[in-house]
Prior knowledge:
Order of helices and strands: HEHEHEEEHEEEEEEEEEHEHEHHHHHHHH
Radius of gyration: 25 Å
Number of helices: 14
Distance between the termini: 31 Å
Structural class: alpha+beta
Amino acid sequence: MKRSIIIFFAIAALALSGCSKSSGTESSPEEGQRFGEKTELGKKLNNPYALENMKAVSEEPLEANFLYVRFLPEDDRDIFLLQQKGLHLYEYPLDYELDVIGRSYHDPSVPEDKPTWQYTIVPADFDFPDVTYEELEKCYIPENDRALEEAAFRHAGYEVAGAVKSGDEDARLSINLRIRSDFPGSPEEGEGVKGVKVYWRSFVKEVAGYTDEDGKCSIVNDFISYPELSVTFDNVNGFSIWENLYFIDAVSMNLGIQKTAEKSLKLSYGDDCWSLGVINNSAYDYYASCREDNVKLPPSDLKIWAWTFVGSSSASMIRRVNGYEGGQITSLAKALIDTLSQKTKLDLEKVLPDLTVGTVYCNKQGYDGSRYRIMYKATWHELTHASHFSQAGDDVWAKYIDYIVKYGAYGTGVVRSEEDREGMNICDLGESWAYSNERYLQLLKFNQNRDTLGDEWFDAHYLSIFNILNQGVLTRKQMYDCLTPAVRSYADFANALISTYDTKKEDLQKLLQLPE
């Protein structure tokens, strides 16, 4: 946790002024499309996939196979239920033109401090959660019946000729999504944005895929009209990236209507989602490294929240700590969360993030330094904590959070009371482990080294762990296996390493600098 969880609690309420789900981009907009801060609706459209419209042109009897609906969540319970369903939610209605494609849309009939309507398409037999919803239209979306679709579009009043050049399987739609990277040796064209989810949508018909490691994704083009293209930071690895304190869904980039076979986009400094792309790539690579090294992954359905108003990061894992609702976490932490909940008019126990990554410095114009590297290693640091949580468990993490919430950042290394000694020891171990992994990553990926943290009280412990990794005395996997729930201090960790790897005892004793 990088200066640190206290930031997560103390200034969280300030984020509300910057909430957004959808980040528009002005990079290479299609002709005639307008991008701005707020989405503005145009005229209402006639949905060609409406069941009644399809029935009018079909020679066979039809029944609805999809429903066009909208949900209105009232509290964190409703939000949580929608998230558990894995729905792709839109803030704006799907049967309207968008005069301006913006970062967000809030229905004027809904108070600004409450979640707005969320629009989506669900199967006709969908098991609705206990959340307020409206069925807007029964729909029929054909499978492999282009003639029926074309007839339905014409009946709805749309021209078909020329909208799509070909309907055969060789006709594809694709996106090439890249991001500017500024570290030595990085490709001139930037890096691909890896494993993010891509959606193509025409009215209520939607097709999705994931980008590969080169940032490319393609699908068979069987749309009758030009589809809307969007990229959502829901990663194929199971983590998602959110922004500030938007609670409903991961950040989505609406790229507008795609009128060419391939859409190429390179995220650069100043683009809304540049920092999110870096966080995404770091996390994607981290998950790959865990699989390669056989190290436990972070918990499933991990939420990484990018905060544009701070530079600090954290790995609170707050929604996963056992007893949170009852309380292993200190009364101070609970009180701060309660305060945040009151400010948002929502009870936030179920929808808080696992990790936060501060992006303020890397979003500043003229920032002097390797922005990609800074964001990348900060994310890696917090993910290292998340894997530690997976191994050590929530009881260890509750004490970790307690200590940092009480004393800020990493504390001072001075025991102020005996009851805090365990928390201080866990903090020492957790930060030494995360920083040593971060430095090892920096050396391997960016060919940069750093001697010390500067002035942290756990500096010697962090260096000892790094040297064991860097000198090849033990592998990351061998060391990670010793971070069990019973290991709650640097001394515990050092003794576990020595007792587990007896053949390395002499080297370990020298590097670990344990007292005689």
